[in-house]
Specification:
With about 290 residues, the protein is of the alpha+beta class. It contains 5 helices and 16 strands. The chain has a single domain, classed as 2,3-Dihydroxybiphenyl 1,2-Dioxygenase, domain 1 (Roll).
Length: about 290
C-alpha cells in the first residue's frame, strides 16, 4: 500500500527564511567578546570587515551589529547551539572582560540564557529535532514582548498582509506564532510589563511573493523605507479592521531574487584551537547529518 503523506505539513507560506536580527552596539570589541568568544559564533570574513559593523554567522542566520547607540530587542532571540558545557565555559571565560556591563548568563532546564553587554537576551538551546527541525546551529525564532490585547490582531495581520501562516494561542500565555521560514517563527507574547520605546532594531525576512505584501502595506501607508529593487521595509503592525497600532518592529523584506539570498555562510568550530587542531574539523555543521534521520 502506498504511503500517505501530509502535504500541508511542508507548506511555508510566503516567508521562506528569517535571515538576520539587527541591533546596534556601541563597542565592536565588547560585541566580539560576547558573540564570537562567548557564544562561539563566527564573524563573517567577507562582508562588513571594518570596525563600524560586523555580521555574525550562526548557521544560515546572522546577527548584524552596526556601531551606534545600543539597541535592545524587547524580548529575546532563540539560538540553537550544541554543547551546553562548552558554551558555559566560553561564557565564563569572558565574564571578567565584560565586568561592569549588563553581561550575564544563567542555566535553565532546557536552555542557557546569555545577556549581551547592553541587555539583549539570547536563549541558547541544544538541538532538538522535534522542536527545531534539523538545525544544530541557527536562529529558529525571535520572541517579542507585546502589550496586552494585541496578540490576536497581530495574528490576523501576518496572514492577510504577508501571506504567512499564524496561530493564536490563549492558554499558557497569550501569544501569536507566525511561521516565517522552515522551522523558523516569530513569537509575539503578551505581557503587562512596561516596555521601553522602540529603538530601531529590526529583523530581516525573504519572501517569495514580493509585490503582494508591498501593495497591501502601501494601501495602508505602512511602507517605512524604499531601499532598492530587491528590498523594502515596514515597521508598524496594525489592527486591520480599526487601523489601531498594535506593535512596532522593523521588517527588512527582501525578494528571493536578492543577490544575497541564501548566501553561503562560514561557521567555525569553536572547539578547535591551535593547541588541539585536527584537520577536517574547522567547520561547524549547522544541520543534522543523515544518521540523525
Amino acid at each position: 500500500m502506498q504511503q500517505k503523506f501530509d502535504r500541508a505539513a511542508e507548506d511555508l507560506g510566503n516567508s521562506v527564511h528569517l535571515e538576520h536580527v539587527n541591533v546596534q552596539v556601541p563597542d565592536q570589541h565588547l560585541a566580539t567578546l560576547f558573540y564570537v568568544t562567548g557564544l562561539g559564533l563566527t564573524r563573517d570574513p567577507y562582508l562588513m570587515v571594518s570596525d563600524t559593523n560586523m555580521w555574525i554567522n550562526a548557521g544560515r542566520n546572522q546577527f548584524h551589529l552596526p556601531s551606534g547607540e545600543a539597541q535592545v530587542l524587547r524580548g529575546h532571540t532563540g539560538l540553537v547551539i550544541s554543547g551546553r558545557a562548552a558554551l558555559l565555559e566560553r561564557l565564563a571565560s569572558v565574564a571578567k572582560k565584560l565586568h561592569g556591563t549588563k553581561f550575564a548568563f544563567s542555566e535553565h532546564n532546557d536552555y542557557v540564557e546569555a545577556i549581551c553587554p547592553w541587555g539583549n537576551h539570547v536563549r541558547c538551546y541544544e538541538p532538538d529535532a522535534a522542536r527545531f527541525g534539523r538545525i544544530t546551529l541557527g536562529i529558529p525564532y525571535v520572541e517579542f514582548d507585546v502589550p496586552l490585547g494585541t496578540a490576536k490582531g497581530i495574528c490576523d495581520f501576518y496572514p492577510q498582509i504577508l501571506g504567512t501562516p499564524a496561530q493564536f494561542h490563549n492558554g499558557d500565555g497569550t501569544l501569536a506564532r507566525v511561521e516565517i521560514g522552515k522551522d523558523q517563527y516569530l513569537l509575539f507574547r503578551e505581557t503587562d510589563r512596561t516596555q521601553p520605546d522602540y529603538d530601531g532594531h529590526h529583523v530581516q525576512i525573504y519572501v517569495s511573493d514580493f509585490s503582494g505584501p508591498y501593495r497591501r502595506l502601501a494601501e495602508r501607508d505602512l511602507i517605512f523605507s524604499e531601499d532598492n529593487q530587491y528590498q523594502y521595509r515596514f515597521r508598524d503592525i496594525v489592527d486591520l479592521s480599526s487601523g489601531k497600532h498594535l506593535f512596532t518592529i522593523e521588517h527588512e523584506v527582501r525578494s528571493v531574487t536578492h543577490p544575497m539570498y541564501l548566501r553561503p555562510l562560514i561557521n567555525r568550530n569553536p572547539a578547535t584551537t591551535n593547541m588541539n587542531y585536527s584537520h577536517g574539523h574547522d567547520q561547524w555543521e549547522w544541520a543534522m547529518g543523515p544518521s540523525d534521520y
